[in-house]
Design a protein that fits this description.
Radius of gyration: 20 Å
Order of helices and strands: HEEEHEH
Number of helices: 3
Protein name: GTP-binding protein
InterPro entries: DUF945
Distance between the termini: 63 Å
Number of domains: 1
Mean pLDDT: 85
């Protein structure tokens, strides 16, 4: 009897976790799109120091995680920062879907979360000096 109860609890947990993971995964891309829209709308209102446009590309949604690249383009450059028009800062983003992202569980964190993200700066023409400085 105890074995059946334990099995039932494990199956129920797996179904709830799987359903929660699927649902939060469906919310990532719309959330990213809203964030980008809000950022770009603020640009139109003149709320940014530089003329920047935010965008994303290569969105790949899986069951447990989503991956994409976020790009911040300096439309007119930033001469005081030696940034040329059209140069981009690019980030690789890996989002693990909740309610219990695997990385958080691996670190002993069992508090539910909608998602956990790992963001890496991409080495390109604009950011290369940062990577060189980090190696010294």
């Amino acid at each position: 009897m105890i074995r059946k109860s334990a099995t039932g609890v494990i199956v129920a947990f797996a179904v709830i976790w799987g359903g929660g993971t699927w649902y939060t995964g469906t919310q990532i891309q719309p959330g990213v799109e809203k964030f980008i829209k809000d950022f770009n709308d603020a640009k139109k209102k003149g709320e940014h120091a530089y003329d920047m446009t935010l965008s994303y590309q290569n969105f790949d949604k899986g069951f447990f995680n989503s991956r994409f690249q976020m790009q911040m383009t300096f439309d007119n450059g930033a001469p005081d920062l030696n940034i040329k028009p059209g140069q981009k800062v690019v980030f690789d983003v890996d989002v693990e879907h909740g309610p219990l992202p695997i990385t958080m569980l691996m670190h002993g964190n069992v508090i539910p979360a909608l998602a956990a993200a790992k963001v890496n700066l991409v080495n390109n023409e604009l950011t290369q000096p940062l990577f060189i400085a980090a190696k010294k």
